[in-house]
Amino acid sequence: MPVYIGKRLLVAIPTLLIISIFVFSLQKLLPGDPVLAMAGEERDPATIEFLREKYRLNDPMPIQYLNWLGGVVTGDFGISLRTNQPVLELIGQKLPVTIQLAVMAMFFAMLIGIPIGILAAVKKNTWIDYTANIVALSGLSIPNFWLGIMLILLVSVQLGWLPASGYESIFVDPVRSLQTMIMPAFVLGNALAATLMRHTRSAMVAVLSSDYIRTARAKGLSPREIILSHSFRNALLPVITLLALLFGELLAGAVLTEQIFTIPGFGKMTVDAVFTRDYAVVQGIVLCTAVGFILMNLLADIAYVLLNPRLRATI
Amino acid sequence: MTAINSTIPVPAKRQQSRAWKKMKRNRSALAGLIIVLFFAILAVTAPILPIADPIATSWGAIRKAPSAAHWLGTDDLGRDILSRMIYGAQASLMAGVVSVLIAVVIGVPFGLIAGYFGGWVDMVISRVTEALLAMPFLIMAIALAAFLGPSLTNAMIAIGLSAMPIFVRLTRGQVLAVKMEDYVEGARSIGLNHFDIMTRYILPNVFAPIIVQATLTVATAIIAEASLSFLGLGQQAPAPSWGSMLNTAKNFLSQAPWMTMWPGIAIFLVVIGFNLLGDGLRDALDPREA
Known about the structure:
The complex is a heterodimer.
Chain A: H1 2-29, H2 34-39, H3 45-54, H4 61-73, H5 87-122, H6 127-141, H7 144-158, H8 174-208, H9 211-218, H10 223-260, H11 266-275, H12 279-307, H13 309-314
Chain B: H1 2-5, H2 12-25, H3 27-45, H4 81-117, H5 119-133, H6 137-148, H7 152-178, H8 182-189, H9 194-231, H10 242-249, H11 257-285
């Protein structure tokens, strides 16, 4: 197992390098010369030259990249122009908020997606299956941010049941924290629920038609036992991989969800950074989400091996 | 040449008509097609429809509920929402189609080359694709749009580039599946060059899944454009777009809820239309699902 993990990590290195080149080149897309903007109105040639030297902009592009990469590898993603904080520190501050949102969203997604997926597979080609399919398709087609706005309109403005925005740390005031997070988590979980439902359904359909299920039926096990302990446990494998793949979608969805519910997390920070032209932060965000995605994939692969005894033997 | 063309297993024309027959029987796909056509016709005919100017403000008609004069009501500047919705359809559909075209035009050739030549070319292209796929689609689109500067054109480029790796991977996989087929071998044996083999023998036979993926990606791209415009990174005021209309509307939730309703419903319908159409095309074009 350690050898397997080591190998996988090694394979991730070229991928990470390519991502870093992409993220570095992003800043070269910027129109205009950043130094001219920094030098102010006078554009004093001495100041411009000083700034160029300071930020090593006179070096050839590959050297600039290596300088930048050297910083990134040691955790120096640059300084946020807006808050004057190191980018990594800023991301570290905002991440717990989004993790809480993501975990709650995942909970909603599983609560809705998995049971409906199982039901649709068991009742394959009946009206229940067709209805579930339409519900899933609608869930995929509804823009997340619009669903959020409509929920605010209905639940907060009309009914006054839940606060429309705001955030409270779960460690300070758990009740208030859950109250402010329930709607955003539901909105974020909704699209994932649809994907999860579709995958659970197809995994269950495949398992239900296999020989060992026929054997289980033949020996007179109750349908409940067959579905939950024989089928679902095996259908769970592809679903777990999917959860890791949905990580990226979750973070991207958080950008809009947090914007609508004004939750001060990772997503809101992304939007704020974009609008204040805080480019070091935007670069840090892209890099961090990519690293997170690769790690989640690795975890999914490890979980897949651990949960599947047949694969365990081969490693 | 004609003799060689006939070695393609199923002539393209017969395959098309069979697929069309299957499509016609698929009621949900047909519903999707009708929804998409409905919005497409509205978008194309917008300039000749008897509707108000989408950017003409009217201080006498601010945030009016739907009425006979303004079927869908007016917005915070007194602009006719129906008209803005129809012109917004132009922005949405154009963004969806153009960004997917960008993704296809760049992604498919790279996928073809990677799958066809294999070796180190494949290694490099595949690694880069993998790296690009590790960046969440919307976050990448937002970052690109931010660095390129906010405009509808840049949003389309950003979405197109973010969707591109999907097509590289898909095409590469499909090419790997067909490149050992006899007709490819035949084309090679009569001395056709790589370019001709790729474009005339491989591409037509891997095109069906690409069309399906493109249709489904238009749905994703339309949501992405709406998201970028909602954040202010897409269509710029005063030109209408469903996403930016929603951005304004969220400030008037309790006073003018209709401002929020229409753009959301429209995005939902168009996206579900493309999704139904894509699913239907997959069923019609996929021989395994016969």
